[in-house]
């Protein structure tokens, strides 16, 4: 049976990625329901650059069609073109005048989700690896505007679990919904727990 070279290379890399998780002792937990083709994939707690490495590797193994928000400062050469190919969307957190407003970024990402047949848009709601008192709201309003669910993804470094928790359909009542979402993450340990939820 003939297997195209590109498909063979991707399969080999996927197999190696799976072995990396096994060797490091990580366990995959949960799945995204099969009927969900589009969603905002919430990832928390985000406390380390390793989150991105493990998270993207995990999505690669799971064959998820992804795009992810990343600060524009990380899009330097030669890493930038590679990240863009992997699905990176550069975000200017400085909020300079020429940059899109938060409202327009929410609209842009919601439109992107609506236009795709299948897409998981990955967003870390803390918006940084440092401790924050309040999560940013953009991830929630993107899902609300795009009429897609929030899939709660996580990495628990203490248990070495990586995977998916419940699916939350935003109601428009942010305060109530965020309590439900953050309650799920209360016992999830980031690499640096003091910086987590």
Q: Can you describe this structure?
A:
This protein has 197 residues and is α/β, with parallel strands linked by helices. The protein has one domain (26-195): Glycerol-3-phosphate (1)-acyltransferase, CATH 3.40.1130. Helix content is 39%, strand content 20%. The protein has 6 helices and 7 strands, in the order αββαβαβαβαββα. Strands 1-7-6-2-5-3-4 form a 7-stranded mixed β-sheet, with helices on both faces. Strand 6 (150-156) and strand 7 form a beta hairpin. Helix 1 (5-24) crosses helix 2 and helix 4 (102-115) packs across helix 5. The longest helix is centred in the first third of the chain and has 20 residues, at 5-24. The model has no long low-confidence stretch (mean pLDDT 87).
Which secondary structure elements does this structure contain, and how are they paired or packed?
Elements: H1 5-24, E1 27-29, E2 38-44, H2 50-62, E3 66-71, H3 79-86, E4 88-91, H4 102-115, E5 119-123, H5 138-146, E6 150-156, E7 161-168, H6 174-185
Parallel strand pairs: 1-7, 2-5, 2-6, 3-4, 3-5
Antiparallel strand pairs: 6-7
Helix pairs in contact: 1-2, 4-5
